[in-house]
Amino acid sequence: MALRTWLETSTKSRLGLFHVLGDNKICLARTDYTLPPPNKVKQMKFHFTWFHERFRVLPADANEETVHIYARAYIMILLSSQLFGDKNANRVHLRWLSYLASMDKLGKYSWGSAALAWLYRFLCRTINRNIVNLAGPLQLLQFSTLRPSGFDVFGFPLASRCATYLPTTNVGEQRVVSARLSLDRLRDCDFLWEPYSALDVAAIVHPEILVVEHSRLWRAVTCLIYFAPIEWHQVHRVVPQFGGVQHLSQLALNIDWLHAKDSRGGDRWFSSYYQEGHLHWNNRLYSVIQVDRVADPGPLVEYLD
Q1: What is the pTM of this model?
Q2: Residue 81 and residue 72: Cα distance in Å, rounded?
Q3: Considering Cα of 281, then 282, then 285, then 287, what sign does the dihedral take?
Q4: Labelling 205: which of 36, 157, 236, 270 has CA 20 to 30 A away?
């Protein structure tokens, strides 16, 4: 039976898939689907094979609404497999439903930035020597701009270029020493405290971003949430970027602990499990810092000491 899924807040559906916080009724999506059997559901995900078979062929007599339903299903498959895939790569996550509710708004999201952030998240995880698998939009790693310098020599066979590109450990150590020496020699006058004030940067920034309404978000000490992962926006630690003086700040948050949080682990609905982070975001307008611009921004002497 085809059903239209409407979720009530603070309740769970008959499949036990959802738990949404709030006092109002929330429609996560206007999409019709046949409920899968229990063995095709795990946590908040549908098995890819069932989902693909359900929306594989568009009916010949499909009306406009049905076309939109199948389009949403296809986009969900792309999001769960190509852009924001996990190591399983065989399930379709339901978290995308809320973003597909409006086809008009769908193209206004910055999907490219989100995909890069998703890839960087998994790349950070692979720093741990115990991590052996890598997920995310790995096709982005094939871009020529990301290849190592000196790896652009072509010959036949193509694999032969690997024989000529054999960087030694000594070269790497020399680069590290050189980079550290350059950092040690930096003086106050060598820093560009307000990078967004540079003309070449201002030329490519959309003017709408510079309006006062959006500047409040720049100056908000809050958290940026991607479902489960949480990144803290600690602008109070980089006040010179806004033309102010950097005072002594509080101790930094445990970033390693925050980076360890992701959507894995049981059937928890993370907007409830990490409710504190969501409350910080909802109250972001109350955490906007005031920056008094000065002619010579930079840190105080006490800060440098």
Answers
A1: 0.61
A2: 14
A3: negative
A4: 236
